[in-house]
Write a structure and sequence with these properties.
- It is globular and about 45 Å long.
- It is mostly helical and 67 residues long.
- Helix content is 40%, strand content 0%.
């Protein structure tokens, strides 16, 4: 049996769950990270707002360190 884990949330929340150990990013548990870059109604993406950009990059770095 194969288990597929999907985590959906803002980068800060996912990062906190990884730090708490609730989301396992070790080994083959995490194989893909999908980042929604769709523009919001104001024309900004996740990378245009410094807080969400920093959180997204922190999450990617945290996952990379644990892989």
């Amino acid at each position: 049996m194969r288990v597929i884990n999907v985590y959906v949330g803002v980068p800060n929340r996912i990062k906190k769950l990884v730090e708490l150990g609730t989301v396992n990013v070790k080994g083959k548990h995490l194989q893909h990270i999908v980042v929604d870059t769709k523009l919001n109604p104001k024309g900004f993406s996740i990378f245009d707002v410094s807080e969400t950009r920093d959180d997204a990059l922190d999450l990617l770095l945290l996952a990379q360190k644990r892989l």
